[in-house]
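PROTOCOL LOG
Step 1. Enter all chains and additional molecules of the complex.
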Amino acid sequence: MNTTATLSRLFAGIQADLDTVDKTFQERATSGLTILNSASMHALGAPGKRLRTALTLLAGKLNTYRFEKLLLLSVAFEMTHLATLIHDDIVDESSTRRGNPTVNALFGDKIAILLGDYYFAKTAGLIADIEDPRIDHLFSDTVATVCEGTILEMMTAGNIDLSKETYYEKTRSKTACLMAACSKGGAIISGATPEEIELLYAYGMHLGTAFQIIDDILDYTQDQSTIGKPAGNDLRQGMVTLPLIYALQDAPQNGHYQQVKTLLGEKTHKDEEISEIVEWVTQGNGVKLSLLDAHAQANKAREALYHFPASPDRDVLDELIDFVLMRKK
Amino acid sequence: MNTTATLSRLFAGIQADLDTVDKTFQERATSGLTILNSASMHALGAPGKRLRTALTLLAGKLNTYRFEKLLLLSVAFEMTHLATLIHDDIVDESSTRRGNPTVNALFGDKIAILLGDYYFAKTAGLIADIEDPRIDHLFSDTVATVCEGTILEMMTAGNIDLSKETYYEKTRSKTACLMAACSKGGAIISGATPEEIELLYAYGMHLGTAFQIIDDILDYTQDQSTIGKPAGNDLRQGMVTLPLIYALQDAPQNGHYQQVKTLLGEKTHKDEEISEIVEWVTQGNGVKLSLLDAHAQANKAREALYHFPASPDRDVLDELIDFVLMRKK
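Step 2. Run joint prediction.
Step 3. Record the structure below.
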């Protein structure tokens, strides 16, 4: 499946609005300081899927489509997302993201910290323009939760005994929560009922969880040329994700368990050692059971969605679930 | 002058409300994550002057005092201030602030980045609770300006030819702008007229500028035991501030000018070299002319304030100007 082609087809009905969101983002991110603009243009130039904007707009289409306000919300959440990525790359000491150099790699940690902060400030302005207290609180709660999720991830790095429950908690707060906020925000702005708002929140949360699980699977199954980073990258960084958790479930306290434990405790790794574990996780139950979990989350997303009457827009949100499951990068 | 005793006397009328602000800050900064709470409690434990809260409350007293909303605004701006300090300490690679270890020194840069972000998120929630679009925008604009000011400071570090104008621009955006936002926000919430709001904004801006100039003077004139850092610390860090700018005005292109130029280009410094420049700035025109500038800013703050009818609360704001000028740490 060609990822870009699929999304283009899926998003054909909102293409013009997606472009307006991009343009507005650039306008609202502008500063009087050249260095801030350069860093910002670089951050914006990185290819993204615009999934969050699509979620916001499509959720907004299920009721009264109010593009003017959805535009502000979309830019706000894309900007929030970018701010968290920029700060994440400092926290993770990453030098590339999807094959491109990160802001910290090009401009240094200091500018990266301040660019993220600047985006948070600008986001608050966008949110204020929407003039809906429910959106104000959605924004604040979401950013706070994402911070907590990032810290939880950091604190649990290198922990071979990480439970599935903690993995899920981390995934919901760090990744899925913002996607849930997008669909919930779209629902709020479009005048959905409280019940519909909660359903679209659940849809976004389960879709986002499936998205992250697939991401974590791809980290084991794909190579550098496809996803812009070498397979086993999470493992190299000491990140214990769902495929590894499942693989370890069946591992006796010797053999692979010991091997992984040693790997997680080391700063540098031999490629052969990483490859051996990657293969074990990929061939055994690790990837298989994770894929089942992703499908279970997808089913829950669909279940929430099917409370809405069938419509072409609901179909797109439905196909988006398949896209998340099937994507290869 | 004993700084703490003076402030206690000045703030006697709002002491109970200041305490409530402290308490509410702690409540609102709480997270479910232990590490975040520990870092937060450490950051909160550092002694501060609570100047920003006092400004907010006292400005609010000049019209209808609405403590419930002023409380939210005070906590929000103290939290914003703390978030910027925490991120600043990473940017400046500082290990102590007022004699205490910084969050980055104790918990590492990563936790410090995320604690700052978490505070921004929480602040957005507090601002939302005030339910006044003018405050929403004041908050967003202020944080964006503070970020720009911090970047401007960073970009101009080590530049011996820094102009007075750029120094003032940096000082207004990095420091004074938040103090101006406090007094302006207090005015907005208390139902001040647009003209009064602008006057209190000007008051805060000039007070904040004087405050920073005095800070920069104290960096040359005070020793470690009084302000918790060695004299000439700014110089060591390559920061060109007003006293140095004035001192350099009269310096020929040899002698001290060359000495400073060499110092600014070096990473490590000999104590004697720093001491020599510190003494030259302190004894010569550097400190003298800066002090005149601080007084000029103070006069402008007073001019704005005197548009309000005399009252005990105006008197406190008036005495606050003297406090800022006379403080020794």
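Step 4. Note key features.
DSSP finds 17 helices and two strands in chain A.
Chain A has one domain: 3-326.
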